[in-house]
Amino acid sequence: MQEGSKVAIFDGHNDAAQHLVEYREGGHDFLVRSEEGHLDLPRAREGGMVGGLFAMYAKAEHPRQGDFSQTANGYEVRLAEPLDAAYARRTIDAQLSALERLVGRANGRIRFATTVDEIEAARRDVAFAIVLHLEGAEAIDADLDWLARLHSRGLRSLGPVWSRPNIFGHGVPFAYPRSPDTGPGLTDAGKALVKACNELGIMVDAAHLNERGFWDLVAISTAPIVATHACAHAICPATRNLTDRQLDAVKASGGVVGFNFSVSEVRPDGHRDPDIPVETVVAHLGYLVERMGDDHVALGSDFDGATMPHPLRDASQLQNLIQALRAHGFDEATLRKIAFDNWMRMLRQSWR
Question: What is the b/e burial string over 219-236, where b = at least 16 CB atoms within 10 angstroms of the residue's CB?
Fold first, then answer.
């Protein structure tokens, strides 16, 4: 496929920062094509990906064993424990510093972006645009001093929680089949965090929030509601997916859902089996479009953070999805919305 025939893609979520050679020993050089993982600059260019939200995320300092349980018709993963705030700050600072070193080493091939104009300028210049995202706000203190620090270093998107509790709220445990209504909503500190993000122009991400936290976000936020990487609970009843009522609320706010490629959220049976046809992926994405309209669906792959379907095994294969959507009857204007334009509109509104 020729470069000019590709539909440009801006992706709403990836975990590549955790795997950078600048961040950890034995990590991957993002500037060099690899067959490991899902995302690097050469494979992004092959797939028409021109930028995305790069998640900074702190894994458990002391991972527990035996958290996964097979049930009669699905699975449950015990809710992760809270993180130590000092550890989280060290981890996030190290990932942000690694991304800064990567951008410095890229000699203009990769740029940070804090405005939509900068994303679009990078695209014109055939440079890759990185928007900084924080997945789980454990590194931020209740007085929000660290929020201001991270904003000054370029943070423009934030999920208050990952799938564990913190001082701001409660994430959903991973489970199937199960409702996302799994616990309390946002704390008072969480509500203050949302308001502060609105004031600073940081997009707030509902991905990983439990349902009560989601509805608190809807009630508080002055910006459109966004889930950077999620799917439809009606198709795959996993806790990480959004119910029809939640999807309707995102649409009513003028917001966007970034369609998550993670097979255990895409497959109707919830299995972590990548052997699914691209038609299954298209059917699930099509449900979101049918329910919400094509102004409210984008892409949020979760590259380097989840198991991908074989037809979308890494970023180089992204145009497979575009071709499959085209074959399914999606016109070119709709494809551009889902692939790029809807994220640009959402970022403009959130970063006001």
Answer: ebbebbbbbbbbbbbbbb
